[in-house]
Design brief:
This protein has helices at about 20-40, 100-105, 130-140, 160-165; strands spanning about 60-65, 85-90, 95-100, 110-115, 120-130, 145-150, 155-160, 170-175, 180, 190, 205-210. It has about 240 residues and is α+β, with helices and mostly antiparallel strands. Strands 1, 4, 5, 8, 9 and 10 form a 6-stranded mixed beta sheet that branches. Strands 3-2-11-6-7 form a 5-stranded mixed beta sheet. The longest helix is centred in the N-terminal third of the chain and has 20 residues, at about 20-40. The chain binds ligand MTE and molybdenum atom.
């Protein structure tokens, strides 16, 4: 079962707010909230050892070769020439970037595993884009900026501590495995925070705000764990 199924709900795209779409979206949300209450996918395995004995697959996860698509059913089309990213809140440099500004930044090329709360993991994803630390060095969060909230074009939000974003594995990516990140996966630019479950990596991001207080996002207020560490199996609660 996936959250979003193109065959079942054809043409379910665009920022519409019709009643049919509204009903389907609410059904998807209700289902996942029920999963959170049920603790679906929770293996209850003890947290694995750290260091050299740490296995590659976090507890309760299974490996997949494909890259499932999960979202609320709206996949906003964003052409590179209309893409913008704005930053607000507790920063010294509240940027307003277009495509060229993004590409003027130094880029990195990294390979990471990703882990979804619905229990699939995917190894060896190759990303290109701007590293988390590079991004932070540009926007310059103030000392009291502790949390980032990502806002996306479909209305989705998610919260991440600045400390967690400041990691060489974090990337604002434009490329996945040699191809531009597809619309279905949140292209043209998507933050990837591999050390957290994938719901913390907002697709179609348009705005990032820096706050001194935490502000739980879309799933965090609907039963998902605030911290989302796959190694501690922080799925729900
Ligand atoms: N904008 C936006 N980002 C989102 C979501 C969403 O609905 N909207 N869903 C989240 C969830 S619940 C998951 S599991 C991952 C799925 O990413 P994928 O479709 O690339 O696998 O995206 C996350 N980012
Ligand atoms: Mo998800």
């Amino acid at each position: 079962m996936t959250d979003h199924d193109d065959d079942q709900w054809p043409g379910l795209t665009g920022d519409q707010d019709g009643t049919v779409l509204g009903t389907i979206k609410q059904k998807l949300i209700d289902t996942k909230e029920q999963w959170a209450r049920d603790g679906r996918g929770q293996s209850g395995e003890a947290a694995p050892a750290k260091g050299p004995d740490k296995p590659r697959l976090p507890p309760g996860q299974r490996l997949t070769q494909d890259f499932p698509v999960l979202d609320l059913g709206i996949q906003p089309p964003i052409a590179p020439d209309e893409w913008r990213l704005t930053v607000s809140g507790l920063v010294d440099n509240p940027i307003d970037w277009g495509w060229a500004d993004f590409h003027d930044q130094p880029h990195v090329d990294i390979v990471t595993d990703i882990h979804c709360v619905t229990t699939w993991s995917r190894y060896d994803n190759r990303w290109q884009g701007i590293s988390g630390p590079q991004f932070l060095s540009v926007v310059q969060p103030r000392a009291d900026a502790k949390y980032m909230v990502f806002h996306a074009h479909d209305g989705y939000t998610t919260n991440v501590p600045v400390k967690v974003f400041n990691d060489d594995e974090v990337i604002l990516a434009h490329t996945w495995n040699g191809e531009p990140i597809s619309r279905a996966h949140g292209g043209p630019i998507r933050p990837i925070i591999p050390k957290l479950y994938l719901w913390k990596s907002a697709k179609w991001v348009k705005h990032i705000t820096f706050l001194d207080k935490d502000a739980p996002g879309f799933w965090e207020v609907r039963g998902y764990h605030n911290d989302a560490d796959p190694w501690k199996e922080e799925r729900y609660g």
